[in-house]
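Justification of resources, computational component.

The compute hours requested in this renewal are based largely on the per-chain cost of generating structure records like the one below. Each record pairs the submitted sequence with a full structure-token output. That output is archived, and it is also reused by downstream analysis tasks.
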Amino acid sequence: MQETRPFVPWDLMNRFMIDVFKGYGVPEEDAAICADVLLESDRRGIESHGCNRFKPIYIDRIKKGTLLPVTELEIVKETPTTVVMDAHDGMGMVASYRMMKKLIEKAKQYGMAGGAIRNSTHYGIAGYWTTMASKEGLVGITGTNARPSIAPTFGVENMMGTNPLTFSLPTDEEFPFCLDCATSIVQRGRVEYYAREGKPTPAGTVISETGEALTDSADILKRLVEGTAALTPLGGIGEELAGYKGYGFAAVVEILSAALSGGQFMKALSGIGEDGKPQMYHLGHFFFVVDPDAFVGQDVFRKTAGDICRALRASKKAPGESRIYTAGEKEYDIWQFRKDKGVPVGEGVQKDIVQIRDELGLPYHFPFED
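The structure output for this chain reads:
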């Protein structure tokens, strides 16, 4: 595994992000949650949702007024096994953390639990929330809607978000089976990453309103906001490669995120009001937690899940391929490589870090400045 970008130690980046969040009004306890969620993305190598998004998605939105730094959570409804929360446009990561803590406790007592949040904001890497469950030996499931990005099969208008449908399953291995991916071929965060790195977006993953393939990453981001481009669902354009399946999964996430929480959906989540000015995003998330002890027991579940993963990895490989992976394995390998090195930061993220440090007058010095 090669890496040419400079590394910033994990503890240094963690302290810096906490201080920046605090500097923009996020309470310290909440700031620690948010920093950890973002850094977890980089630990797993999912850089589209890590430090790459720290400034543009969180700090800039706080400054713009479309994300409130103080999260005033309201319990709308609660039963022994369910919770509905209103995040009132606060930090989606904070609301999701509080939700998962509640659901884990309920699932351990009753076997299963489910929850939904409305009027929320971007909640970071979806796998963070499901992994909270798998660390406790529980099954975690979550999904979230988002700004309109995906066009339905046979359409070109961006109607639904990239809508990840995410699962973490505990195993008897050192890492869980964690499937965390968007229901589009490429997610908006990945396009943002390509744009920041000056790279094109792969052809066929984005279509224009006239059905043309788009590859200019910066132009794609602009067009997505304007509504003149859309991401294609898993499977791609039309039905030949089963794009309707990705479309269907995206719709499931959209419905559960909005209908379970009583929240908003699709075009109402654009972040742009009728007057063309920025407004709150009002996102919805859903979460489910299952305790294997309510079925066959955690030990049996873990071993069965581990046996399935090992059998898959040991199966016959395609010519020229040296390894078969199961979900969560690559992320674990990346963490083993990075844990003693730190967070790799490209030039775009370096500029963001220096800019917000200087804005707040924080006394930090980073290795890439030497």
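The chain has a mean pLDDT of 95. The chain is about 40% helix and 15% strand.
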